[in-house]
Design goal:
Elements (H helix, E strand, L loop, with lengths): L5 E3 L5 E3 L8 H22 L5 H13 L1 H13 L12 H21 L5 H22 L17 H25 L9 H12 L1 H7 L1 H15 L10 H16 L3 H18 L5 H24 L6 H25 L9 H4 L14 H9 L12 H10 L1 H24 L3 H20 L4 H18 L11
Antiparallel strand pairs: 1-2
């Protein structure tokens, strides 16, 4: 018999869905303090008309926190803790507000100039458009399914063979690339070797190698749904596969390929095992950010010698990336260059062809801004991607689409719970954080979603025995 307030997880383990707010009173304190601080700053700023920039930043962060404020209010009124920190109405708007708000403040103070009101207007248009998208998704009709069918969607035995198959494909691609190019992480210039893999072998080989990332995500899913007394994490075979996948991805020298699956694992744990509180989410988010900075530090220095100045520059660079990108783009588009339109938006699909394919980031880096750094391209970030392709209208119409997509996936997961819907949403939720930093449309997430659909179809197929009758 199921207890009140509980749901049944794939491994037939009870997962606490919501509890008394009194039991989480301590964890809610930081969020309440944050909201109170924002309101206080807003009031103080309004009394000083000269600090308009700070007013814009505080307002942006406050608007980004509306989903958290709303869910906390509902929790207080109902006396039940109903805050889901990985809801698209909470985690993404908060990070969006911090990314563009705090980032713009640091960026303007660092370069000693004031960001124009028109740029802040684009920040707000994008954020309200995103809210409109998730609101529209919540109004779509979603048929509910019984939670009792949750355990039958992805049988662990089928999932195990799917993981081995995907991991095998990625390993074949990796060995082929190593035999032709070498091991990226062992080279003097990691970016150059990765570039040569795509240039000489084609983007298809790169995507084949990166299938190891999908296998790693599914290994975490497998560990969370395996209905056995002995946890798979204690199985040497599972541990060996995870270590192999992590080492293979680290060998590519691409930090995102390693941190992405680890971040997805946190979201999977949140929905399949135990809901995480605010302190856990803040702690894990801070650790993830510092690890990303540390990985970039190691890549530039090649060692662990202390260099506080370099570490501070990397932190500042990641903080101001969004504001810096949009400010640079607004300065030259459309006054000096025309918007790219659909030609720029669909350039990622050219990455599969062999030879050098000049993608949007390469064109911006080389032709527009003339940056001379080696390896990689210049990323426009999320708002910059919409702006450089379609102008302000791209932000006005694109951000609602962003909200609609993730809102629809979230509603599907809530109303039709399954291992597939949770895995799909967990991946897209983390990809949205990558997209916030990089851009909107890429071929890689479409490839991942396609692979997850194939795994879902394979896991649901029922093989029937054929009877042979004698005449």
């Amino acid at each position: 018999m199921k207890k009140k307030g509980m749901i049944v997880s794939p491994g037939n383990r009870p997962v606490q869905e919501s509890g008394s707010i009194t039991s989480t009173r301590i964890t809610s304190v930081p969020a309440i303090v944050l909201v109170g601080t924002l309101v206080g700053l807003l009031s103080a700023t309004m009394s000083d008309p000269s600090s308009m920039e700070l007013l814009m930043v505080v307002a942006l962060v406050l608007v980004g926190s509306l989903g958290l404020i709303w869910q906390m209010t509902i929790s207080i009124l109902s006396r039940r803790w109903k805050v889901d920190f990985f809801s698209p109405a909470i985690y993404f708007p908060i990070l969006y507000g911090l990314y563009y708000g705090v980032g713009s403040l640091v960026y303007s103070s660092h370069l000693h100039f004031t960001i124009t009101v028109s740029e802040y207007t684009l920040y707000f248009v994008g954020l309200f458009g995103y809210y409109g998208g998730i609101l529209a998704a919540s109004m779509l009709p979603w048929p509910r399914r019984s939670v009792s069918s949750f355990t039958t969607s992805w049988p662990p035995s089928r999932l195990k063979y799917a993981i081995l198959g995907i991991l095998g494909l990625g390993t074949i691609g990796l060995l082929y690339a190593i035999s032709r190019i070498g091991v990226p992480v062992l080279s003097a210039n990691v970016e150059d070797v990765r570039f040569r893999i795509a240039l000489q072998l084609g983007g298809f080989v790169s995507y084949l190698i990166n299938s190891i990332e999908i296998a790693l995500v599914l290994l975490f899913t497998y560990a969370l749904i395996k209905p056995t007394k002995k946890s798979p994490v204690r199985d040497p075979r599972w541990v060996a596969l995870v270590l192999f996948a992590v080492l293979a991805l680290m060998g590519l020298g691409h930090r995102r390929r390693v941190f992405g699956p680890l971040a997805v694992a946190v979201v999977l744990y949140h929905y399949l095992r135990k809901r995480l509180g605010v302190m856990a989410v803040v702690f894990l988010g801070t650790v993830a950010f510092l690890l990303l900075i540390f990985a970039a530090f190691l890549r530039q220095t090649g060692g662990v010698e202390p260099d506080q100045a370099l570490f501070a520059r990397l932190v500042t660079y990641e903080t101001v990336r969004g504001a810096d990108a949009l400010s640079k783009l607004v300065e030259v588009f459309p006054s000096q260059f025309d918007f790219f339109g659909w030609h720029g938006a669909l350039l990622p699909f050219a990455a599969l062809a062999p030879g050098r394919q000049r993608l949007l980031g390469d064109i911006l880096k080389e032709d527009i801004f003339g940056f001379g750094f080696r390896g990689g391209a210049w990323v426009p970030t999320l708002l910059g991607w919409f702006y450089v392709n379609f102008g302000p209208a791209g932000i006005s119409f694109g951000m609602p689409v962003v909200g609609l997509i993730i809102g629809a996936l979230y509603q599907k997961m809530r109303h039709n719970p399954s291992v597939f819907s949770i895995t799909l949403y967990s991946y897209i939720a983390i990809y949205y954080l990558v997209g916030l930093r990089g851009g909107f449309l890429e071929l890689w997430p479409l490839y991942v979603v396609g692979m997850l659909f194939i795994v879902d179809v394979y896991s649901r197929i029922r093989l029937r025995s054929v009877r042979v009758t004698s005449g």
